[in-house]
Structure formats: C-alpha cells, structure tokens
Design a protein that fits this description.
This protein is an alpha/beta fold. Helix content is 30%, strand content 18%. Strand 16 and strand 17 (467-470) form a beta hairpin. The longest helix has 39 residues, at 193-231. It is globular, with a radius of gyration of 29 Å.
Length: 481
Amino acid sequence: MSNGAGRPPEHRPRTVSAPSIPRVLLHALTTLLAAFLVALAAAGPAAAAPPGDDLVKVFVVQDPARTGGQLATLPSIAAAVLGDPARADEILRLNQGQTQKDGGALTGPGDQLHPGWILRLPQDASGPGVQLARDTSGQGGGGSAPPGSGQPAGAGTGGGQSSTVLTIPLAAAVALLGAVLLALVTAGIVGRRTVRAGWSAAGRALGRLGEPARRRRRLAQRQATGRWFDADAESVRRAYDALGEFAATDRAPERAVHALSVDPREVTVWLSPSETADAPWTNVDGTRWRRPAGAPGPYAPSGTAQAAAAPSAACLVRAGTDADGRPVFVDLSRLDGVLSVTGEKAVARDVVQNLLAEIARTRPGTPVTVLRGAADAPPVLVPPSLRQVPQTGPPAVAAPAPARGTVRAAASRRPLQGLVVVAGTPDGREAAELAALCGPGGAGWTGLVYGGSPDAHWHWYADGEGRVDIPVLDLKVTVPA
C-alpha cells in the first residue's frame, strides 16, 4: 500500500486555490479612492472644469416626455442649479432676446421655455443638467452649444470653427473611478470574503465622504427658500385669490380646498375626493385640479361678499416647495385641531418654525403658547410679531367627539384662534392640556407638535434632507431652514 508521494505525478491530487490579493493592496486601493473623493469634494462641483474665456455654463431645456410631463421654468432651473429660485432674473438677463435654434427667443419672465432651448447660466451654477459649452456669439444664449446637444460647440450665431468640449461631471468621475477599482479588485480576488468586506468598506467610506457636502448644499437651498418666502408676498395674494373661487355662492356650495400651489404659469388645488371643479380646471389625479394662471375659475366673482368670506376664514401657510420648486400652501383652518410632525427632530422643528413665520407675516398678533414636551427636543423661537402668552390651566372641555383620523374628507373649517406649540412628544399632563385647547369641544386653538401626538388629525414625516411627507395630500415638500 503506497501513499500519495509514491504515485506517478499525473495521479497526484491537485489543489486549485482561488486567486488572492494581499490585504495591503486592497487597503491601498481603498485609500486611493478615499483620497480622490476628498480632493473632488474639496474642489467643489465647478472646480473640476472651470469655464475659460470662451466657455460658458448652459442648461438644455428637456422635452416634457423625458421629465414626467413637466416643462422646466426659469424659477425651477434657478432652484436646481443656483439653489435660489429668486435668481431666475439672472438667467433671464443672460438669455433675453437671444435667438434659439427653433427661431424663438426668451423675452420675459413669463415666457414658456421650449424643449431644446439652450440657456446660458451664471458661472456659479452647478448640479444636474449643468454643461460646459463654447460660446462663439460673444453673448451666450442661443450661441452656446453644449456637448451632446447635436450642435457642435462653436456653431453658434457667429460660428466659424468647430470644436468639441468634453466635460466630466463629478458623478461621472466618481463612477469611472469606482468602475476601475471594481475591475481591479474583481480580477484579483474573485470569490474571497475579504473582497466583499473591503468593497463594502469602500462603499461606506464613499457615502461618508459625500454626505457632508450633499447636506451642506441641501441646507443652503433650504435657507435660500426661507429668504425667498420672506420677500415673496405676490404668491400669497394669488393663493388667496384662487381660494376665493371656491367660496360658497348662490349657485354652488363652498368647495373645501385643503392645499394649493401657484406660480406665474398655473394654479393647482387639492380638493376632497368627492369634489369636482368645472372648466377651465382640469383633473390631474383625482384630488388635484389645475388651471392656467390667466384663466380664473367660474365660481365666485371677484369682489363679492361670498368670495371674501372663505379667504378671511382660511389660514394659508406655505409648507415648503414641491419637486418643481413651486410654493405649496396648506390651509391650517382645515387642520381639525392638531398637526404632528415626526421623524428627524431638527427638520420637524424647522417645519413648525416655518409655519410660525408664515403666520407672523399674514396674521401678526396671533397668540401663541409653548409647551415643553421631550427634554431633548430642539427649542422653537416664537417670532416677535406673534403674541406669546404664558401657559394657563386647561379650560372647561365639552364632551369630546370621536377621533376621525387622517381623512381629508372629514376636515371641517375652524378659524385660527391661537397656536399651541409642543416641543417634542407631550407627556400626560401636556396631552390633556393640548386636547383641551385644540381637541374636539375644546377652545378652538390649533396645535403644532414636532413630536408624536396620536390625537392629531394631520401627521407629517420629516427626513434628514429637509423633505417632509404629507400623506393626506400624497405630497412631499422641501421645507425652509
């Protein structure tokens, strides 16, 4: 009997091992990726390819079929690439009167943008959709040709030469580097657990490196929205004008408008599922109705007593901006008592802080009392134009009505008498006081809670990015900071 050593070489057992790579190489590759990303983040989005003397930053207006049916507007472009919708005037000045390739031209802030138009942007523009192009017209606008637009760079109104500008956005550079790293690692360490662990570590490092810069940009955009709200009184006036169209008249009862959005092009309202609206309103998704801004509805003639009744009883406040950068108003008089905002504590506080600022602008002198709920809840600042009153004992409460839950059709109008702000989830005593002031049969005040409140009629949910989900409206908004 012989052992394996005495067998012919061709009969000796062979051991096939999986390819391996030294841990030091994996560590080096991960470190290289981290260092490269840190350099990119420090340089900022525009540092990778700054415009030269004949390079400009441009934005190509996309066809609505490629953007979910929404055509870009100057405010939405300014919000996306400059972080401030109010800077739409800068984009207008850079492009006003410049002939586009379809023969049209941008002449005023209310003009409709056409798919394929190339708009010149300020040099500090960054983000999705921003491209570099060579400007041969000497003025920008229609003379700029972005890469991939089908028109060679340099083929503008003064085009005499043809060249191509290659841009590598930050996201593409990161993706390219990640692909190279993945190919190198996969080729050397297929099937090894250390590879999977190392790759997961690299992915987590990538997320950690990009997260602070992304949060800073998001915060800057939210702060710009807050400044815009401070200076914008026109959208408030247009919102109340649109609300007056749904007031009760001799011909029709009042239609409950729970929220609305206005911009220079169109007006959108959120009605109860059982409500309808006549032309020129068109249905969007069952509860949303929309009409052009220049075509007011037929319900309440302007200036009538009926038309003025609903706006005077309503309390419209801008909750934030939608995905297109348009302000979204909610009617706090349809709140049925209490709004509860849960999720990220700081953002939930920002929601309540913004609602207080909105009420301070439109209803100065409104009484406010603040109840301290959870000890770890960030404090709220009451605007000076509101009248802060000390906490008092709960008033006598009538027999409470049964809770109706988060059902839009169940909301009834309750004029705003005062505000109760609860910082964090209320304890037992504070919950009883909140119910006495704001609940069914109570004193008729409105509660704003940034914390959990099971008796709330509206429940909103905030995330760390400044986005707030409003389930009762099937809507997400970005709140000011």
